[in-house]
What does this fold into?
Amino acid sequence: MLYWVRHIAIFFLWAIVFTTVAQTHDAQPDSTALSPTTQQNEHNQATTLPDTIALTQKRPSFFARLIEAFTATDSNYIAPNYYNYAFMLQNTNFYQSYNLRAINTETDEVQRISLSPATNFRVGPYFGWRWLFLGYTFDVARPSHVGKSSQFNLSLYSSRIGVDLVYVKNKANFHFNDISGFEGVNDNALRGTTFGGLDTYNLSINLYYVFNSRHFSYPAAYSQSTVQRKNAGSFLLGLRYDQSRCDFDYNALPPILTENELAFDGFKGAAYNHRNYSISFGYAYNFVPLRNVLISASVMPSLGYRLQKGEHFAFDHHSVWTNVKNFNIDFINRAAIVWNNGRLFCGGSIVNYLYNYRSGQFGVTNSLTYFNVYAGVNFLRRKEYRTAGKSKW
It folds into this structure.
């Protein structure tokens, strides 16, 4: 497995370097396209420049050229950020659900239990510098649940590179959404009932590369630092690392499910603690139906290899099926609608992380969803965009 991980990482780095060099090259003027007369005129002008001017012209540093290569965009498609700073108010709603499944291997019947922690409704201020936003939101809906759960989410959107960091931990902070497959028990019998037998933990780090960054802007949809002017899409390539833990206490289930052995054995001792290494590939599209209005959507599935705690990369060629079962497919989905005239902006976005796990008679689908609503203002124009006689604010 290390062989493939190494080669996937090398491919990812070469893709970044190749597209960066190619797009930077495309941005340079092609002198071969000039007529002989034009080339001669330019040569004559160049030879008449004073030596003092030639000496003062310095080639940009490597760091400056690297920044330019990673931030260059086509102004016909993407309007740049004219301001240094931004301030906004944001409402963040966090939803999580665990859909647990137990399978009767003899009859192929499936029992399902859907659980969710208390929903977080948070409001707070954010302060931004160009493409980076920092802030804090306060839980105004259920502050009494803070001690039983914690979550942190950070997403950085630049022209070519994006990073997601997600941390969520919940203990004894769940309630039933619905159940199914339990003979003689109504599917809505436990809806809203609290359940203290689930202890969960998730850590996810996602790094991805945007191929068509000259025409497509993720920041325009999710960090409001640029404005998309024309429709454009892009393929995405990423690497992802996840840690997940889930402990399910069968004995904490309500008696209505455990009496007369109604619950399948798959729920007994149901637990997992694993890490997952993935490569992802997806597509994103920005649709501009009206001036200053943007609708964005993206889907990014990932193919990963799962290792249980204490397990290491190893392929036993005499047990191919065991290795195949360690592969899994997860998803990251995004959608946004934004109004942004360069100075004022408002909108909403949804980011969903979908994780799947299956082992023997037990399976879990874990969904994390962030729904944001915001409004803000940009201020203090950058020097290169200031106009003489007009306020810099």
